[in-house]
Amino acid sequence: MGRITEQKQEILGAFKEGYAPTAEELLTKLRKKNPDFSRATLYRNLSAFCEDGTLKKISAPGMTDRYELDTGCCYHVVCEICGKVDDLPLGDVIPDPEYIYDYAITHHELMFYGICEKCQKDLDM
Amino acid sequence: MGRITEQKQEILGAFKEGYAPTAEELLTKLRKKNPDFSRATLYRNLSAFCEDGTLKKISAPGMTDRYELDTGCCYHVVCEICGKVDDLPLGDVIPDPEYIYDYAITHHELMFYGICEKCQKDLDM
DNA sequence: ATAAATGCAAAGCCTTTGCTAATCT
DNA sequence: AGATTAGCAAAGGCTTTGCATTTAT
């Protein structure tokens, strides 16, 4: 995936601890070491890492997007107040739970991603 | 939920046909009848309708938020190219499908929403 | 050497907010 | 009349882009 730069290494390094951060949270962290760390560089690399499968972007209504190392896990719990996100191993996925870990669960959403018929046709042309 | 205005009725009316639209798609449609329909009014009412459970906001990485009448359904298929969204009745939910309706499925995500332990404690104070 | 990545600042997209005028009860 | 809602325009949050400079290979 292109050249290995100090910035890329620092970005990935910032994921080793802690919860799925927002871009701004990452930037704050990265600028403690390197005050000139560019916001553009961060966003460009986050996008690239998401494209190559290193990171995964997590979106939910009303919250800023968050990023996590892509472990392949597609089950998550998110706090609607602070935005904290935890991965959820398959074995922990039960329908209509009241609690997961320490989260008081309010609702859930299952989303399938794909390509609709019309867009499939458009791609073939 | 407050007064019934023409604008609110027009907004809900715009949902009777078609797929979960973005705010901008709705505005275009609403302005065909009423060219002065205000963007602010649209957004304020969309938020209010989401709060009172009339509408549901759908978010996914890389796409503008979309809105649909809240049928209580929490399973969806979304086209990663054009953003088209379909509800998915419970009976149609199968693990790792190749196709759903006419969508070629690429992946899926299950998200539980709740309140984490720390935020629960903060609320109690 | 040269292609790629960075930093900076400006632009962009989507959404919210402040304020005045209009509207419902 | 009084409170709510609409419209307008400006501001805001988050992300992307253009361009000159630096850096990895």
Number of DSSP-assigned strands of chain A: 6
Our Rg estimate of chain A from Cα atoms comes to 17 Å
Greatest interface and its participating residue counts: A-B, 44 and 44 residues
Number of contiguous helices of chain A:
4
Return the average pLDDT of chain A rounded to an integer: 93
Which parts of chain A are unreliable, with pLDDT below 50 for 5 consecutive residues or more? none
Strand order of the largest sheet of chain A: 1-2
State the share of residues found in helices of chain A, binned by percent.
Answer: 25-40%
Biggest β-sheet strands, sense, barrel of chain A:
2 strands, antiparallel
Seen as an oligomer or otherwise, the chain set is: homodimer
Report the span from N to C terminus of chain A: 29 Å
What global shape of chain A is seen? Answer: globular
What share of the residues of chain A does DSSP label as strand, in percent? 15-25%
Order of helices and strands of chain A: HHHEEEEEEH
Q: Would you tell me the structural class of the helices and strands of chain A?
A: alpha+beta
Task: Tell me about this structure.
- The structure is a homodimer of 125-residue chains.
- The first copy, chain A, contains four helices and six strands; from the N terminus they run αααββββββα.
- By secondary structure, chain A is α+β, with helices and mostly antiparallel strands.
- In chain A, the strands form three sheets. A two-stranded antiparallel sheet of chain A has the order 1-2. In chain A, strands 3-4 form a two-stranded antiparallel sheet.
- In chain A, a hairpin with a 2-residue loop joins β5 and β6 (103-115).
- Chain A is globular.
- The model of chain A has no long low-confidence stretch (mean pLDDT 93).
- Chain A binds chain B through residues 50, 57-62, 65, 74-82, 84, 88, 93, 97, 99-100, 102-120, 122-123, and chain B through 50, 57-62, 65, 74-82, 84, 88, 93, 97, 99-100, 102-120, 122-123.
- β6 of chain A pairs antiparallel with β6 (103-115) of chain B, so a sheet runs across the interface.
- Chain A binds a DNA duplex (25 and 25 nucleotides) through α3.
